[in-house]
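Supplementary Note 2. Why include the ligand at all?

Several targets in our set were suspected to adopt different conformations when bound, so apo predictions alone were not considered sufficient. For every target with a known small-molecule partner we therefore ran a joint prediction. The input for zinc ion is given below.
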Amino acid sequence: MPRSTRTVDLLLLGASEVVTLDGGTGPKAGVEAMNDLGVLPQAGVAVHRGKIVEVGPSLELARKYRAWRRILCRGRTILPGLVDAHTHPVFAHMREQEFALRCRGATYEEIFAAGGGIHASAAHLRDTPLDVLAAGVRKRLDRMLLHGTTTAEAKSGYGLSTKAEIKSLKALARGGREHPVTVVPTFLGAHAVPPEYKDRRGAYVREVIDEMIPRVAREKLAVFCDVFVEEGAFTAEEGLRILKAGLRHGLRPKVHADEFRDGGGAKLAASVGAISAEHLGGTGPEGIRAMAKAGVIPVLLPATCLFLSLKRPDARGMIEAGCAVALATDFNPGSSPTENLHLVAALGCTDLGMTPEEVITAITRNAAAAAGVESTRGRIAVGRPADLLVIDAPSYLSIPYRLGTNLTHLVVAGGKVVVERGRRCGVKRS
Ligand SMILES: [Zn+2]
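The joint prediction is reproduced in C-alpha cell form.
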C-alpha cells in the first residue's frame, strides 16, 4: 500500500544525536533533571512554516516526509539554538587598551576608581548616535549567531542618564529588528552611579525610579528591570526600591548579585521574586538556600570570573540545593569580551565543577527560563519555533570538551537556515 507522505519546508536527517532537552515544564532544577538531556540517537527534525513538526528516528522521518530542503547531518549533533541569558551588547567601543593596562598590573577596581571602566563606556555611549549604536548591536548579534546563539537577553546600562538609557534600549530594538537572534531587552539604568552623581547618589536612584522606569515601561522598551547590587554600585536597600518601582510598571526583576563578595544580592533576588540572580561568586549557603526556595534562577558567568580572576560561584552547591542553574557569556567590553557560549560551557565544567550534561542544560533550557522565554525557546519539541543548532561533532560532549572551539556548522532560526558551514547565509546586507 502506498505510504502517505507530507511535504515540509526542511528536514534535518541522520544526526548522531538530537539533544531535545524536552520533558516536563519549567526549567530543569537540581542534579537529576539537569543531567537528563533527552538525547535521541540517529534522529532528525522536521520543520514547517517556522515550527518544529516532528522529532524522532531519522529513518521514520525520511519515510514520512518529503521536504523542500533535506540536510544530512551525519556525524553531527542537533541541539536547541543556544540561549545567552546575560549580555550587554549596547556600547560604543571595546576596551582593549584597558585590558593592556590590566595585563601590566592595574586592577579592575583601580581602573574603575580612576574613571575608566564603565564610566569610560558611558561617556562614549552618550556621544554616539543611535544608528551607530544599533549597527554595533547588529554586528554583535551576528557574531552570537555564528556561535549558535539564537536568543539573547540584552541589557542597557552604559548610558546612565535618562536620555542615554532610552537611546540604548532603542538601539537594542533597532539593532535586533528582523535579526535572526531573538532579543529580550532588560533595563539596567542602575548599573553604576555616574560620576556626576558621586556625592548625591540618592538623586540618581530617584532619577532611575521616577524618570527612567516609567519611560521605559511606557515606551515598552524592556521586559526586565535589573540592578547591580555591589559595594561601589548600589546597596541592597536601593536595589529593592528600584526593583519594586520596576514591578509597579510591569518590569520583572533581575539582580546583578554578589559578584565580588556576598552583599545580600541573592537574598534580595529571592525576597523580591526575581526571575534570576546573576554572577553570584560571593554567594554563600544562606543565599543559595533562599534562591532554591524562591525558584530564582542563578545565572553564572564563568568567562567573567576567568577574565577578572574572580572567586568562582558555588555551582555545585546551587545545583545540589535544587536550583536550575543557567550559564551566560556576560558579553561586555569591560569584563567579558566574548560572545562564545561554547567557551562558557567549557568553563562551566573546568572551573565550576559542572557535568557536561549540566552545562548543556544551562545554555539552553535553563537559560531560556532565565530570559523569560522558556515556553518557546531552549528545547526541541513539536509546535515550538524551529531554532536549532547543528554542531560539527558526533556528540554534545564536544561542546564543553573542545574548550571554546566554535563547532557551529548550521543554525536554523524561526525555521530558516541562517548559518551554513559556519557562515552566515540567506541575508541581504545593506
Ligand atoms: Zn552583567
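The pocket of zinc ion is lined by residues 86, 88, 256, 330 (CB under 6 Å). The domain at 6-80+378-424 is CATH 2.30.40.10 (Urease, subunit C; domain 1). Comparable summaries for the other entries are listed in the accompanying table.
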